[in-house]
Amino acid sequence: MNKLEFEIPFNQMSKSQQRIADFIVKSPERIPFYTEEDIATKAGVSIATVSRFWRSVGYDNLKSFKKYLQETQHSTPARKMQHVLDKTENEVVVQMITSAAVNLEETAKRISLQAFDQAVEALIVADKIYVHGPGSTSCLSDLLRFRLNRIGMEVRIMAQSGHELLESLVHAGPNDVVLFFGFVRKSPEATVILDQASESGYTTILITDLLLSDMIDDSDIVLQVDRGDRDAFHSLVAPMTIVESLSVSLAGQRGESAMEKLQQLHAMRKHYASLLPK
């Protein structure tokens, strides 16, 4: 399976071309069903810009690009997994560890230390922290709640989708933070979270692997990570490292308060060891 190929590098494209390219790279499975008008709407550019885009990157038109996608059979979870298996053969663990190291190295380049410090500052003063982690990122939500609850910080996990999301969001106010994960594309839930922020006044923290997205522009604080190429197995190692880093930083910020909670937990474990063994 090949990567999506454009004749000009991403960093040499215009801002509008980058928006189109980023949308295509993150959502190739949708392109066969989209018109140029659809793509223009999703990428936030004009239809004329989309029409000119194809020739600038080496294709006659949208139809020829769709044909290229069909021939190269991009995307779908099954193909991504097969790609990993084909590449790794009998050394899966070695290849996965190597890929994770690359993800972390790239994340170290992408992450803004200033944005990270802002996230820690926002979380430490928040009355309540709401976390939205759809799909596979639900484990990251659970990890963050586990770590922060331990040091006395209240974290509430939001419903992954549907109207139940609003049951949590309705309580979020100006002194709260909503942290959410936004990978691949902007979901309806992310749209609601960001839209309601202007009404309710809570601070939004986005953890994403996208380079260009309306979510980035609309979020208060953005932490960018790398999860691998579009057609690769998307690892959660880098975003998990960010979650762990936030947890450690927050424990440090809370100082004695955090240590007291951890010591209290240790004492309770000893006291109830016979009833609640490890």
Automatic annotation (TrEMBL):
UniProt-listed Pfam families: HTH_6, SIS
Stored InterPro entries: Homeodomain-like_sf, HTH_RpiR, RpiR-like, RpiR-like_SIS, SIS_dom, SIS_dom_sf, WH-like_DNA-bd_sf
Protein name: RpiR family transcriptional regulator
Limits of the HTH rpiR-type domain: 1-76
Keyword Lyase annotated: no
Molecular function (Gene Ontology), one example: carbohydrate derivative binding
GO biological process, one term: carbohydrate derivative metabolic process
Annotated SIS domain residues: 119-256
Gene3D superfamilies per UniProt: Glucose-6-phosphate isomerase like protein, domain 1, Winged helix-like DNA-binding domain superfamily/Winged helix DNA-binding domain
UniProt source species: Paenibacillus antarcticus
Keywords: DNA-binding, Transcription, Transcription regulation
